[in-house]
Amino acid sequence: MRQILKLFIALSVMSCGTQNRVTYSWANKSFHAPSPYKKVFVAALIANPHVRTHLEEEMGLAAKKQGFGVERSWDYFPPTFENKNPPSREKMLEKIRSLNCDLIFTIHLTDKRSETRYIPSGMGYYGPYPGYGLYFRGFYSYWYPFFYDPGYYVTDRYYFLEGNLFDTQTETLIWSVQTTTINPSSIENFSKSLIETLLQKALEDLK
Questions:
Q1: Nearest by Cα to 64 from 17, 16, 6, 106
Q2: Are 110 and 160 in contact (CB under 8 A)?
Q3: If DSSP codes are grouped into helix, strand and coil, which group holds residue 177?
Q4: Which residues of the chain are under the pLDDT cut of 50?
Q5: Residue 141 contacts by C-beta under 8 Å, 6 or more apart in sequence?
Q6: pTM for the whole thing?
Q7: Phi, then psi, of 138 in degrees rounded to 5
Q8: Per-residue pLDDT, 203
């Protein structure tokens, strides 16, 4: 597992801040690498080309900084107008092995949804507020200024992603993690913070 840890330690150099939450992770503790890892194939299996390229770029730069060889799926399987679907498993594995990559790391979007909520005017947030106590008098006095002051609605966007690390030779799953991201500020920040979240969890799971 030490080579894998080195790879994820490399990712911390490229990351800053986090707006993600790990909801599930699993590590294959019984797996032992057949040989030292030297090269990783990074594949963000995401339809949005902007997100895909940023995620693969961040992963690649970080791994290269620590001496790993890196290949990105975008360089070999870019979407086209005729075919926007990813290649078959056989075709991708054939390419990965021809490039002598001994690790495969994939990221894909499992779900996304939006939720709309009301924000009273003048309030930076909405939620239970214990300051008025358990009685109607306190409740009414606190909220009265907002009753006739129109607020606004905001829409929160949730993105659910999964990352998986495989040994190329055996196709064995080594590590898996699922994350939730809420309202990413930009693709750039989203890519960096997601990598940091994956790093932190990997360091815990792959000891």
A1: 6
A2: yes
A3: strand
A4: 9-18, 125-126
A5: 132
A6: 0.70
A7: -65, -40
A8: 61
